[in-house]
Amino acid sequence: MCSSNAPSIVWFRKDLRLDDNPAFTEAVTKGPVIPLFLWSPNEEDFSTGGASRIWLYHSLLSLKKQLAVLGLNLIIRKGNSVDNLFDIVDYTNAKAVYTNKRYEPSSLKKDKEIANKLKEIGLEYKTFNGNLIIDPKVVLNKSNLPFKVFSHFWKKCLSVANPTEPLPVPNKIISFKNKIKSIEISDLNLGQDKHWALKISKNWDFNYGFSRKKLISFIDNNFNEYCDNRNFPGKDGTSKLSPYLHYGQISPNQIFYELSKSKNENWKESQYLAEIGWREFGYYLMFHFPKTINEPLRNEFKKFPWIENDFLFDSWKNGTTGYPLVDAGMRELWETGWMHNRVRMVVASFLVKHLLIDWKKGADWFWDTLVDADLASNTLGWQWSAGCGADAAPYFRIFNPTTQAEKFDGNGDYIRRWVPELKNMEAPKIFEPHKYKGDLFLKNSYSDPIVDHAESRKKALLAYDIIKK
Ligand SMILES: Cc1cc2nc3c(=O)[nH]c(=O)nc-3n(C[C@H](O)[C@H](O)[C@H](O)COP(=O)(O)OP(=O)(O)OC[C@H]3O[C@@H](n4cnc5c(N)ncnc54)[C@H](O)[C@@H]3O)c2cc1C
What we know:
Layout: E1 8-12, H1 22-28, E2 33-39, H2 50-69, E3 75-78, H3 81-92, E4 96-100, H4 105-120, E5 124-128, H5 150-160, H6 195-201, H7 210-221, H8 226-229, H9 242-246, H10 252-261, H11 271-288, H12 310-318, H13 324-336, H14 341-354, H15 359-369, H16 375-386, H17 401-408, H18 413-418, H19 453-468
Parallel strand pairs: 1-2, 1-4, 2-3, 4-5
Bound molecules: flavin-adenine dinucleotide.
């Protein structure tokens, strides 16, 4: 039997914030609170990638600091999540566990297991929607089936979802006085001190509250030009909020709400909100079609004749394909843990269509190197690029990486920034540097194209013919 003074556990997962956090808000109304973070990467569908671990390290530090301001100590454990959770429940006589929903297949399974086990011993396990605008369960078409076309999905979402005023950081908090066994964030060995981690971290601001400031500044200064600028990687035209959204340092509802309060009359039809909608669509597809984290949504792609070629794959990873826009993107990724969306589409298309390498291999590399690595959005992005997902780019539409560069990096600024070998080359030469080998400054420092565009296009279409039959 629990006393009324028994504590509630708030299990922080992909919701590392104190405002607009329904699980945290609910817990503090019920008495003493124990904030908990459990590190169990082996229980995930895919063990957390390197860049994502670096982000996690910093976001946990800032959450811990912010909780301390409220007089709360973040309890951290690693290992089996069920064992750890029940150990803390036993030790503290906790009466309830609150958390915000996750939608990855492994998390949904674990949630069920935990809910059942807690129920057996008379404890409440309540999950809240804190990470999406709309719960994937509630959006269905007229036949009660999930949508597979984004525009139909999003139209339905917008007809039923309304932004709600974000919950404030609770101020009347009772902490749990007894000491609970916990480890330090540094004991999680998230690789934060490695050279690569230090390099990536320099590009980001992890201070608590930064993401909200960034959002407001984006709405004030960039929102109106988003449509015009968002495809140009050399411009600062997008919000760069993806890693903050992934770890829940900002909620999509906060974005939805701030847009609704902005002076822009067309905020609801805006391209920016539609991009938040694509994030929702990724989660929606993962929820309704969980097998897609491992296999293509479109079955015919299971027999696609992907090839294995270490040289081609390594050239792609290292940014030495001889296609300047592809190489710039892959190097931006390695240097910063992030890549512009237009360039993500170009490099993904290049891998699956020019090199005929399985999208899963590309998705794995992104998983390890993106600070915003997100199972729903990454699966969506790769299956979209490979043409094997819902509402995807048709396989036969093959991006030409050279004309993409001409169109979206017209003066070559983005390429020059990330490919130093080409820093003295002007447009249009910079789009096809192998044709200007005679230029003194180029010497042999930049690779020739590893494949020929026209030939690769032909091969890709032939491969596609096989699965169409
Ligand atoms: C092959 C491939 C892989 C991708 N992998 C990921 C990933 O692992 N994690 C991830 O967050 N995004 C992924 N994306 C989507 C997209 O590239 C990023 O969300 C975007 O570049 C993040 O930059 P931003 O915050 O400045 O976006 P903005 O343009 O400012 O958009 C605002 C927010 O909307 C969401 N968003 C924007 N575009 C998309 C999109 N196409 N799909 C889903 N959500 C979107 C993001 O949460 C983003 O932060 C991938 C795209 C491709 C083509």
